[in-house]
Amino acid sequence: MIQNKITQLETESSLEDEEEKAIGTNDFNSFFSYTKYNVIYLFSFNNKKNYIILLFFLSDLIKNQNDVYLLLTAKAVKKASREMKDIINSHDDQMEKFDTIQQRYMELFQDMKRLEREHAKMKKRNEQLQKEKDAAKSDLSKANSMKHKLENICRELQKENKRIKEESKRLAASEQQKREELSSKFENTIWEIKSKMEEDTDEKKKRAEDNELLKDKFRSFLEQYELREKHFKSVVRSKDLELQLYEAKLQQQKQLTEQEIIKVNSLKEQIETFTKTEAELRKQLNVYVDKFKQVEETLNKSNELFLTFRKEMEQMTKKTKKLEKENSSIKGKCDTMNKNILEMAEERARDQKAIEDAKKKQAKLENLCRALQV
């Protein structure tokens, strides 16, 4: 492409010389601008001799909001400017000047392509991180839903345990009262039987039958009590299994929360990396601003070119501001996620405490059952 451009320039120069001879003009000036890769060659022709007053710059290296990535410093810009002036002043031959400038441009063009590849990789990585962030947000939402379900189940379990405890107390009091009444009746009956046996032998059989009937009633009462005791044990066993299930679910929820915390920390590190990259890009933007000022001083006669470059610089500034807003938005989302994780940890601690209270209540119920069995 560069060699073709050189050939084109030579052809145009010869045509200009022939035209100057034809019209008999001593002074002829022409201006040529080439912007294919944002490299501008300015040629001034005077008395059939070409003097290159070249000044080139790269304005299309910034293609979107993340394309400020040419690693230059203020010293490098000043050095490049001095090199261009030295090239223009040190060579008398036009082609020598042009070859030297062409070589310098090719070096900068290769740097630009290398940085474009690096930017493409960075953009791809940024998209991947965005997907991971969305996935982490979805997992966090699922974890919150599971947490609310576990809280509702724990509250229901506490109500059920309270109801069972009250029912156990009521049954124990009722059974104790029945035992006392039965024992009192049994003793009274025995005393009555003994007194009647002494008074009348004919009534012994009847009393024996009454005694057997009383024994049968007492035996039936004991069987009913044993059935109630078995039913109570089965209820306690089922509640114990439910409590174990809730503990397993709570442990699973704890593991999911720890995984979310790890993902959030990873996102924090990536955001810090992007923040550093943004600072470097800001420095590079300042370098471009300095370079633009130098170009502005040199290209006083190129008003159209200057206005075009200024528009591009304004677009680049707008894109940089947009990048800053997006970075601030990502930081805000990260802070919100950290706050949600802290709240989840506090709620998990409260759930653990509620489970421990339920275990204590269960232990009390078991002790009460053992006391009833005795």
UniProtKB/TrEMBL annotation:
Positions in coiled-coil regions: 264-368
GO function terms (MF aspect): syntaxin binding
Entry keywords, A to Z: Coiled coil
Biased composition (Basic and acidic residues): 120-140
Region entry Disordered, spans: 120-142
Keyword Zinc: no
Matches recorded under InterPro entries: Taxilin_fam
Spans through the membrane: none
Family (UniProt): Belongs to the taxilin family.
Entry protein name: Myosin-like coiled-coil protein
Organism from which the protein derives: Glomus cerebriforme
